[in-house]
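Propose amino acids for all 263 sites.
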């Protein structure tokens, strides 16, 4: 006599219904191959002849692709919810985009990059450019608002990597007489506090008045901003040596006057 397995219990029927519903929604296994599939099955025990019920976990299918042209790969979590995607050749960027619906963590060995909310942190021993002629920021692409560090930056100043070394020309020193130190507030500032410094246009006028070309002195430079407007800039560190040369001249003059009894 042929023995038919009994009807699945209610809880097993519910599980089977849920699995079938997920398949009909395309979650198992076509969209999310990482979610394991499970089937409710019955089997008869050899010793007692009674039927038992279990969920048999099957290995998920593997999806492979040799090429992806102009497409998108969705990234799902273990519950089948999309948490990000990889896009190739989108309308806004022709390269590869990795988009996360939340936080993003990248790791390689002991180095990690974490992107949480609107902050990004890099954890590694050294953060270096791939070449020696790289810039940190760009006036036409975007500039940093502020740079925080425990110590000041270290600028290479070895004699072995310099040439045409000479004393500060007198016209550089005289140029400083026409540069006006000022206080000012930044248009994009957040503290409404005053800053001290120079105005780039004033520095350029002083340079022109004393025959100092911007191709000769690197203290003044210009570029364009993110909207294509001309933006004049200064390298403030370049003025340190000029001001020091001017101070030495003034000290020499004061000493001479003192020696002549005019101090």
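Proposal:
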């Amino acid at each position: 006599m042929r023995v038919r397995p009994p009807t699945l219990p209610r809880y097993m029927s519910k599980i089977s219904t849920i699995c079938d519903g997920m398949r009909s929604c395309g979650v198992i296994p076509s969209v999310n191959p990482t979610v394991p599939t499970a089937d409710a099955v019955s089997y008869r025990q050899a010793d007692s002849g009674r039927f038992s019920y279990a969920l048999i976990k099957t290995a998920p299918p593997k999806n492979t692709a040799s090429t992806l042209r102009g497409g998108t790969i969705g990234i799902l979590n273990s519950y089948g919810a999309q948490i990000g995607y990889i896009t190739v050749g989108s309308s806004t960027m022709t390269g590869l985009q990795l988009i996360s619906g939340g936080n993003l963590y990248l790791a390689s060995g002991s180095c990690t990059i974490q992107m949480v909310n609107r902050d990004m942190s890099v954890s590694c021993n050294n953060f270096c450019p791939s070449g020696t002629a790289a810039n940190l920021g760009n006036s036409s692409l975007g500039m940093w608002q502020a740079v925080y560090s425990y110590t000041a930056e270290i600028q290479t100043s070895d004699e072995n990597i310099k040439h045409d070394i000479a004393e500060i020309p007198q016209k550089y020193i005289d140029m400083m007489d026409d540069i006006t130190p000022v206080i000012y507030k930044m248009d994009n500032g957040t503290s409404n506090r005053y800053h001290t410094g120079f105005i780039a246009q004033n520095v350029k006028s002083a340079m022109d008045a004393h025959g100092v070309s911007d191709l000769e002195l690197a203290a003044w430079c210009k570029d364009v901003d993110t909207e294509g407007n001309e933006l004049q800039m200064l390298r403030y560190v370049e003025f340190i040596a000029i001001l020091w040369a001017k101070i030495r001249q003034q000290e020499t003059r004061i000493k001479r006057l003192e020696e002549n009894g005019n101090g």
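Helices lie at 10-24, 27-31, 170-175, 200-209, 238-259. Residues 8-19, 21-43 have pLDDT under 50 and may be disordered.
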